[in-house]
């Protein structure tokens, strides 16, 4: 049975040499992280592993070198500087593969899980709330579980339940979860949303990745019918379509009628929506991101974004050159799953340009000069050190505000032509010249 205690006593279970899992997204258990780091002087070589988290990450501070090492499976804003400065490490991995890493004997077998759960119900079950993702695997295999028990954690359905007897140290907590508010969409994002919506038919099952573009796509779908959601994550954009009756899930091949996701990121309104809602099933990532599951949906549409794409169709979504920016995430899981689905559509949607960063030698890196403070995200070759997140053999549709390029089954020359046609007009001439120099055209 759980021992109820305060934060400092709870984290006493962590010993030197342990591997500690930290739950992520809105559920990031910051008070437990702070209590753990408060014990830092007496701990050595504690390894932390986590996906996308919010809030301060004090164990990445230089003063804790030798005490804590963060091995991140995704590089979010709160650890970007530390990871690029060598104070945290990054592991490129398909999210569908993470649960197996956490199992006993796995490469990242978990000793202790730090989580945040809803209070036990009348049967003694707490819920993992808004982040079931890889947390399910972590709590299933961890030797010890330390939990904040917080009435603000939504009691979600699906595979989210954890009996209180499985928790070793429980701390009563009543604090808000992290919330991410929607930003208004700009004209470019709206145009991309509209272009992507042209590729989506009624009855489609959708996966939406992270960032503003998924929201723009959802906003462009309000006249569609009977859409379903099977995604690694979703945000507030989905709520509007549920309220309008557009998302019904009635044509889903499996999990009919259900919105299936492994975590959510959004406002309190979204957290309230998933609370005790039988329409929403929160499932682990070895289910949501499993290509064997994804391919079963008829007309599965996966929409993900990218930082850079070369003229042959190689997609970089993880880094800006050598600078680590995010992670593999579920991009490849869903791109491949959608490609295998009957009439499936894997889509990469990105703005054609980005702001040019002063001091970065774009001309040398990608053979294109910035124009009016903008650089092209469609480039002759990827920047030095850029990671290929989706290979050119996996890519099907690329969408910008200028149109749609269908690349699947096309040779390198055709790919270059189609990608140049959806690049920003001021870069097309330079791209064409580079494509000739590279013998693509
Ligand atoms: N060169 C230089 N800077 C670039 C750039 C490029 N090629 N591309 C983007 N940037 C800059 C942008 O200007 C922006 O900077 P700013 O915030 O200072 O304006 C920043 O990088 C982020 O770009 P943006 O396009 O706004 O990112 P986003 O929030 O839409 O996220 C990804 C895009 C690719 C990072 C995001 O989709 C991701 O993490 N993908 C990987 C994981 C994944 O796909 N998971 C899917 C399931 S969740």
Low-confidence spans: none
**Derived structural class:** alpha/beta
Number of strands: 28
CATH class of the largest domain: Alpha Beta
Proper CATH architecture of the largest domain: 3-Layer(aba) Sandwich
Q: How are strands sequenced across the largest beta sheet?
A: 1-11-8-6-2-3-4-5
Count of discrete domains:
2
User: Looking at CATH, which topology of the largest domain would you report?
Assistant: Glutaconate Coenzyme A-transferase
Shape: globular
Strand composition percent: 15-25%
Give the averaged pLDDT, no decimals.
95
Radius of gyration: 22 Å
Helical percentage: 25-40%
Distance between the first and last residues' Cα? 68 Å
The number of helical segments is 15
Major sheet summary line: 8 strands, parallel
Please tag this protein with its features.
alpha/beta, 441 residues, 8-stranded parallel sheet, Glutaconate Coenzyme A-transferase, binds coenzyme A
Task: Write up what this structure looks like.
The structure is a single chain. By secondary structure, the protein is an alpha/beta fold. The chain has two domains: 3-172, Glutaconate Coenzyme A-transferase (3-Layer(aba) Sandwich), CATH 3.40.1080.10; 187-437, 3-Layer(aba) Sandwich (Glutaconate Coenzyme A-transferase). The protein contains 15 helices and 28 strands. The strands form eight sheets. Strands 1-11-8-6-2-3-4-5 form an eight-stranded parallel β-sheet, with helices on both faces. A hairpin with a 4-residue loop joins strand 19 (308-310) and strand 20. Helix 7 (212-219) runs parallel beside helix 8 (237-243) and helix 14 packs antiparallel against helix 15. The longest helix has 13 residues, at 425-437. It starts with a strand and ends with a helix. The model has no long low-confidence stretch (mean pLDDT 95). Bound molecules: coenzyme A. Coenzyme A (COA) is lined by residues 209-213, 232-233, 304-308, 317, 320, 325-327, 329-331, 354-355, 357, 375, 377.
């Amino acid at each position: 049975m759980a021992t109820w205690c305060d934060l400092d006593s709870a984290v006493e279970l962590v010993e030197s040499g342990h591997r500690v899992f930290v739950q992520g997204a809105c559920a990031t258990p910051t008070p437990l992280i702070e209590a753990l780091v408060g014990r830092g002087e007496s701990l050595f070589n504690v390894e932390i592993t986590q996906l996308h988290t919010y809030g301060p990450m004090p164990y990445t501070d230089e003063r804790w070198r030798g005490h804590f090492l963060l091995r991140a499976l995704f590089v979010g804003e709160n650890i970007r500087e530390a990871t690029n400065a060598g104070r945290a490490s990054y592991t490129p991995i398909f999210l569908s593969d993470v649960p197996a890493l956490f199992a006993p004997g796995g490469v990242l077998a978990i000793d202790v899980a730090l989580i945040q759960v809803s209070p036990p119900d009348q049967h003694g079950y707490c819920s993992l709330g808004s982040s079931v993702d890889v947390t399910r695997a972590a709590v299933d295999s961890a030797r010890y579980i330390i939990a904040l028990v917080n009435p603000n954690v939504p009691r979600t359905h699906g595979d989210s339940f954890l009996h209180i007897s499985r928790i070793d140290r429980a701390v009563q907590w009543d604090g808000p979860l992290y919330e991410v508010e929607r930003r208004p969409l700009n004209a470019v994002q709206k145009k991309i949303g509209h272009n992507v919506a042209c590729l989506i038919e009624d009855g489609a099952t959708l996966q939406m990745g992270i960032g503003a573009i998924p929201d723009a796509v959802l906003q462009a779908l309000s006249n569609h019918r009977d859409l379903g959601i099977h995604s690694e994550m979703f945000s507030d954009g989905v709520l509007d379509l549920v309220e309008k009756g557009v998302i019904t899930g009635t044509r889903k091949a499996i999990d009919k009628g259900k919105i299936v996701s492994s975590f959510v990121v959004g406002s309190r309104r979204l957290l309230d929506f998933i609370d005790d809602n039988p329409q929403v099933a929160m499932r682990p990532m070895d289910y949501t991101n499993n290509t064997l599951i994804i391919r079963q949906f008829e007309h599965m549409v996966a929409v993900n974004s990218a930082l850079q794409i070369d003229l042959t169709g190689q997609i970089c979504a993880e880094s800006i050159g050598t600078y680590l920016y995010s992670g593999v995430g579920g991009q490849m899981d869903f791109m491949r799953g959608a490609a295998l689905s009957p009439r499936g559509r894997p889509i990469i949607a990105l703005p054609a340009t980005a702001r040019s960063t002063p001091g970065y030698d774009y001309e040398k890196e990608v053979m294109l000069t910035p124009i009016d403070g903008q650089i092209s995200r469609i480039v002759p070759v990827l920047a030095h050190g850029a990671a290929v997140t989706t290979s050119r053999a996996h890519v099907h549709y690329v969408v910008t505000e200028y149109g749609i390029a269908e690349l699947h089954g096309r040779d390198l020359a055709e790919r270059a032509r189609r990608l140049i046609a959806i690049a920003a007009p001021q870069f097309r001439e330079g791209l064409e010249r580079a494509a000739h120099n590279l013998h693509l055209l």
